[in-house]
From TrEMBL:
Keywords: Heme, Iron, Metal-binding, Signal. Residues 31-124 form the Cytochrome c domain. SUPFAM superfamilies: Cytochrome c (SSF46626). Residues 1-21 form the signal peptide. It comes from Alteraurantiacibacter palmitatis. PROSITE patterns: CYTC (PS51007). This is C-type cytochrome. InterPro entries: Cyt_c-like_dom (IPR009056), Cyt_c-like_dom_sf (IPR036909). The lineage of its organism: Bacteria, Pseudomonadati, Pseudomonadota, Alphaproteobacteria, Sphingomonadales.
Amino acid sequence: MKAVACLAVALSAAVSLSVAAQQAERPRINPADLPGRQVFAAQCAPCHGAGRGDDGSHSLPGTEALARKYAGALPGELERRSDLPAPLLRLFVRRGAGAMPAFRPSELTDAEIVAIADYLAATAQRSR
Ligand code: HEC
């Protein structure tokens, strides 16, 4: 399990460097136009959205868990993360992570994971 976590962190670091390089040349994209927005809203936002509960506390277990996990080093909201390219996102989504269930290909296709990754890259770029 530790080895998997190390691999994920190393992969994340390596890929985010190449993502950063690509983003420098890419024109800004409006995330609202991307098909991944719908998929994220339906499948991920109930746990990973950016909102708060009525009492001001996070009502979103994914956002809350990630904010706690990274303690300010990375944002809790996936839509502000620029370090989750499709191959790494697929790893988390297919395996599940802690309280997060794994998604099977019959529930979420590889193409939909790529679409979510594109959407997250665009929203992260916008939130900078
Ligand atoms: C039922 C709630 C729930 C749903 C639905 C859910 N997640 Fe999660 N997700 C979590 C929780 C909780 C964690 C934190 C797990 C942990 O403790 O490390 C997490 C962690 C992650 C991580 C790991 C990030 C990191 O840096 O450790 C990624 C990536 C992720 N989710 C992506 C997604 C995507 C994409 C979707 C939609 C396809 C999704 N999740 C749907 C609850 C959820």
